[in-house]
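task queued by scheduler; priority normal; single chain, no ligands, no partner chains; default sampling; output format set to structure tokens
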Amino acid sequence: MPAPMKPASDTVRFGADSVFGFIRRTAEHEGPRCRWKTADYENRLRYDITLFNGVGGIPLFLADYGRLRGNEEALELARGALEWCADAGHEGYIRGLQFGKAGPAFAAWHMDATEHSPAIARLCERVTGSILGEDPGPVTDMVGGAASNGFYLLTAWKKRGGRELLEGAVRCGEWLRRQLVRDELGCHCAARPDGAWFGNRPFSGFAHGISGVAFFFALLYEATRESAWKQVAMEIFDTLIRDAQPIHGGWNWSPGLGKKELSRCQWSHGSPGVGLALLRAAEIFGEPRLMEAAILAGEATYGYGDFRNNPTQCVGLAGGGDFLLELGRVTGEERWMDRAREFGEKIMAYRAVLPEGDAWPTDEPGLYTADFMYGAAGIGHFLLRIETEGRLAMPLIGGRLNSS
């Protein structure tokens, strides 16, 4: 049943505490380790280690909640989740930030967990070794491809240093640069250039498309200061600027580059994700046209509002709200902060009060899960970020990891 709203001044903190209560209540403990059942794409509950819709992303919220609140139980749950993910018996991909073991390893870097657990340290070393030792292909994107693996290496490099980590990220970038095509659409690459999976088609969005690739190139420039990475990133961003379509007083993008159908406005496809890439690059490059494009993406994101009737990071209010909050942080304009807070208020309508306690939904009515991208943890993290007015960093955009 719908829950009554708290007073506006208390809503955000109350919401983050509610998310923590749900995650704590649904944790399954195995000694010092813990896990949660999370939902797959067919809404089946299972145990999974991935960051996208498994246990691997939950520590991103728990660690920041624990540090912000001084809550040791939250930190213990985060460590317990990573210990469970670090079990060598788990099958599945190793590389890939959202769909491989790189996800929980990234979360371990986020909370500095490698120094306190041999098992977690081994997980990180295994992921790092796999990315450094294998061919970067065949996928390009920021969800599970070379861009995501290069981003993981840059994160590890910022945490521990090491020339081989930066060189590995550059190797991912060099492979990506070789996949670029320049034609009537502009400068782009397919999510999988060999034609498998999605087929040999370019996408625009952050998850599977060229904005995520350009975002990684921008981070490579920030790390190396080699002008070639800025040049190629700007080629892609200029392609996206030409492909933008006006709506709601701003810009949105079709999932398919060069297509006209505006079917989505979410982190994975559309203005929130594309806008985050533009905004992060505008910070790094100081290019006014990137900032102007990011602001137009923000106008569309706000105009679409809760178009999916969903509170989550990947496709809903939390993902769009995080982008609005970043616009407020970067521009210093209060209107973006106000709009982010408005999205936070709307999120509270999705809190369900069950006999056993609060619960937070996915896309499917009556289905509740703790994961980061499609569940409660990502919602809670956005609410924490509103509470800190954006001083708490988004974990998945780089550059401000663990600042608060």
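post-processing summary
- The longest helix spans residues 8-26.
- Strands lie at 28-30, 33-35, 38-39, 45-46, 181-183, 186-188, 245-247, 250-252, 352-354, 357-359.
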